[in-house]
Specification:
2 domains, 3-stranded antiparallel sheet
């Protein structure tokens, strides 16, 4: 009598024999195993990137056209130290609209500390392009005058 071994049926599903995938779904077993759906996320990603690019271009155009044309610009034309407690300066102010502007000047000492300061107010009914003289009273001898900038009631950042 000859003893033969009987084959043991596989209990692990990974040891099961592979079957051919159906032609309608290329990998139904893998999709079910890994939880993949048949839909692609590519259109959603492309749409989100398109919206981000559109928002970025809109912001760039706004910065380039609206923020690059301030309502008031100013330039320090020159200054003169007349005494240890007095400095004279001339500021050129250009406005795009007839609005009130405030321009701030600072007198600085050799150690860069502020020794005097003045704010010039340009009325709304004055000419749009003008040069303004200013006399700054200082605490001690100044060596330079700095124009901090001009502001308007709508724009609080000095220009």
């Amino acid at each position: 009598m000859v003893l033969q071994r009987r084959p043991i049926p596989p209990t692990d599903p990974l040891d099961a024999p592979l079957t051919e995938p159906s032609p309608t779904s290329p990998t139904p077993d893998l999709d079910a195993r890994y939880g993949r759906s048949g839909r692609s996320r590519r259109p959603v990603v492309i749409g989100a990137l398109g919206v981000l690019v559109l928002v970025g271009l809109t912001w760039l155009l706004w910065v380039a056209f609206v923020q690059s044309n301030p309502p008031v610009t100013s330039r320090l034309q020159g200054f003169e130290i007349t005494s240890p407690t007095t400095t004279k300066a001339t500021v050129q102010v250009d406005r795009t609209k007839s609005i009130e502007a405030s321009c701030r000047l600072q007198a600085k000492a050799a150690d860069f500390s502020i020794v005097g300061e003045i704010t010039l107010t340009v009325p709304a009914d004055s000419p749009r392009h003008q040069s303004l003289p200013a006399t700054i009273t200082t605490q001690r001898a100044a060596t330079s005058v700095v124009l901090v900038g001009c502001t308007t009631p709508e724009n609080h950042r000095p220009r």
